[in-house]
Amino acid sequence: MSNLFPITTIRGSKPGPDGLIIAGVHGDEYEPIRAVVQLLKELRNTLLCGSLTLVPIVNISAYLTASRLGEDGLDLARTCPGNKSGSITEKVAHEISNLIRKTDFLIDMHTGGNLFDISPLSGYMLHPNLEVLETQRAMAEAFNLPIIWGTSPELNGRTLSVARDENVPAIYTEYRGGGFYPEGITDLADGCKNVLAYFGMLPLEKGVSKVALIIEDNHPGSGHLQEMYPAPEEGIFVPEVKLGQEVKREEILGHIWDFTGKKKTDIFAQQEGTVFLIRAVPMAKKGDALAGILSSVNKD
Ligand SMILES: [Zn+2]
């Protein structure tokens, strides 16, 4: 039991994999939190084998301020593996990293939080160990969200970086944001159960695949959502595209208006592809991400 966040472990009657499912690494991402609570209710006495550890809210100090960041101003997903005697976010990072090192697989569920709307997707790092990578690909496929996105493995500070260093197969998910989407609770809980079935921990129910787009992009920094289409200046963001929209190069994604309403700066698509991330609020500081595009063809 942790003093820093709630942990529940459910055990099957036979030996098997030990899995870890977590939500609330960021305090303003609610569908995953609700999905883990649903799993806590649904999965009791149902596991065929192994064990499943569920953490519905990793980052309580961020949750209690409805914020992405902890009360010390740190982003837990940039602070792993943390520090046992550091600030609150560093301590939480230390403790969740210890759990991740002990598990056989990890699912870490996110949303775009207060600021972003993101197309539902399952992501993983393009792990140098082929066995780990293949397991991650299978987990993402089983989770069954419309987009599968493998990205560059070099990013640090994340739960997935800790898993990477320990050769623990790990996926993360994104599911909308900038509002609450109740259908996300079911989609995410079902996704987790599909992955448990893949590992033999629940009966396998073969459903219809919803996967529509699989992209693997090994460019350095490819998985860094907060750096996409940075605002050229501070202002009021007005999007001109919708999630899932196909855009061409040079198409207008949106505008930044200055506070006098006189100056409009156009934000142009720099690549052809599918819009999968849009800033969900007008507030934009210089450098804040405004939009994200997934291209099936790599630029290099
Ligand atoms: Zn998050």
UniProtKB/TrEMBL annotation:
The keyword Hydrolase applies. Pfam families: AstE_AspA_cat. Its cofactor is Zn(2+). Keywords: Hydrolase, Metal-binding, Zinc. InterPro entries: AstE_AspA_cat (IPR055438), N-alpha-Ac-DABA-like (IPR043795), N-alpha-Ac-DABA_deacetylase (IPR053138). Residues 15-198 form the Succinylglutamate desuccinylase/Aspartoacylase catalytic domain. PANTHER family: BLL3975 PROTEIN (PTHR37326). This is Succinylglutamate desuccinylase/aspartoacylase family protein.
